[in-house]
């Protein structure tokens, strides 16, 4: 990723099979990362995602068994100071087995989780470091009152799982149904 900005990962449980799920249900966040080193260049390598080709994350062990969609996304904020944040997202289908009995939340829906006037998308990376306001709900860690999960649920992924941790949509089959929209530079805001 050669854009400064955060990475986020959401999941949504399919009501049946992930293959047939359109992603129109509730989504919960399982991962987010923004700035890793305040002392580096805030327009580049201060961001955890800078110069990486993947987003690495852990699925909480208490996630209930079932089929899910995973939505990793990277938001380029180099143009956010003029309302031009860039959204890079994709998705993959996974089947969780040996999970737990947690209740994921808080949840949001896409589109609708983000608004054009959110501080996250009207943020300046120029003139030095400042705290970045992460978009979306709080991260669900799988543990009530905990900030991290110590175990990982087992995941059986479909062939599309290679898309789980990438921000490029090129060469990947649309695994989230025909109306799940992916945009590289969405100037018409619909997230």
Number of domains: 1
Structural class: mainly beta
The total of beta strands comes to: 7
Q: What is the helical fraction, as a range of percent?
A: under 10%
- Largest sheet report: 7 strands, antiparallel
- What name does CATH use for the topology? Coagulation Factor XIII, Chain A, domain 1
What gyration radius follows from the Cα positions, in whole Å?
Answer: 16 Å
Mean pLDDT: 82
CATH architecture: Distorted Sandwich
Distance between the ends? 21 Å
> What percent strand?
15-25%
What are the segments in which pLDDT stays under 50 over at least 5 consecutive residues? 145-152, 156-175, 177-191
What characteristics describe this protein?
191 residues; seven-stranded antiparallel beta sheet; disordered C terminus; Coagulation Factor XIII, Chain A, domain 1; mainly beta
Give a brief outline of the structure.
The chain is mainly beta and 191 residues long. The chain has strands at 7-13, 27-33, 66-76, 86-89, 92-97, 107-108, 154-157. Strands 1, 2, 3, 4, 5, 6 and 7 form a seven-stranded antiparallel β-sheet that branches.
């Amino acid at each position: 990723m050669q854009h400064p900005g955060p990475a986020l990962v959401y999941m949504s449980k399919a009501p049946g099979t992930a293959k047939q799920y359109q992603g129109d249900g509730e989504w919960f966040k399982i991962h987010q990362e923004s700035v890793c080193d305040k002392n580096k260049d805030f327009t580049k390598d201060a961001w955890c995602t800078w110069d990486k080709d993947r987003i690495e994350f852990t699925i909480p062990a208490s996630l209930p068994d079932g089929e899910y969609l995973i939505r990793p996304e990277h938001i380029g904020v180099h143009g956010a100071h003029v309302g031009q944040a860039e959204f890079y997202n994709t998705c993959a289908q996974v089947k969780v087995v040996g999970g737990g009995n947690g209740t994921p939340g808080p949840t949001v829906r896409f589109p609708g989780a983000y608004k054009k006037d959110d501080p996250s998308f009207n943020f300046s990376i120029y003139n030095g470091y400042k705290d970045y306001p992460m978009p979306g709900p709080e991260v669900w860690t799988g543990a009530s009152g905990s900030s991290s999960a110590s175990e990982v649920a087992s995941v059986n992924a479909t062939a599309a799982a290679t898309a789980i941790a990438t921000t490029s949509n090129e060469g990947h089959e649309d695994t989230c149904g025909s109306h799940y929209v992916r945009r590289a530079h969405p100037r018409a805001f619909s997230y």
